[in-house]
Specification:
Elements lengths: L4 H36 L3 H20 L5 H19 L1
Helix pairs in contact: 1-2, 1-3, 2-3
């Protein structure tokens, strides 16, 4: 445990930021899981809505630096392929 006042503050700030980041990443994964379940159920309209929600969450995570922008692009492309396969 740090003794210096600024270091103590950094520990508190880092923990708060970590919890916030975990929350955002968890919401992103949940949105992706929701989309995948809609695709598995062959629910086209639900999948379209879930796709928009999932891509928004992925973009927000990338903008905040929680995931790399290339990973975000790959994730969105994968979701898009699934959605297009469902429509075909």
């Amino acid at each position: 445990m740090p003794n210096i006042k600024s270091a103590i503050k950094r520990v508190k700030t880092s923990e708060a930021n970590r919890l916030h980041n975990v929350q955002i990443k968890s919401a992103m994964r949940t949105a992706i899981r929701s989309f995948n379940s809609k695709v598995d159920d062959q629910d086209v309209e639900g999948a379209k809505a879930a796709f928009l929600a999932a891509t928004t969450k992925v973009d927000k995570a990338a903008n905040k630096g929680l995931i790399h922008k290339n990973k975000a692009a790959n994730e969105k492309a994968r979701l898009s392929r699934k959605l297009n396969g469902l429509n075909a």
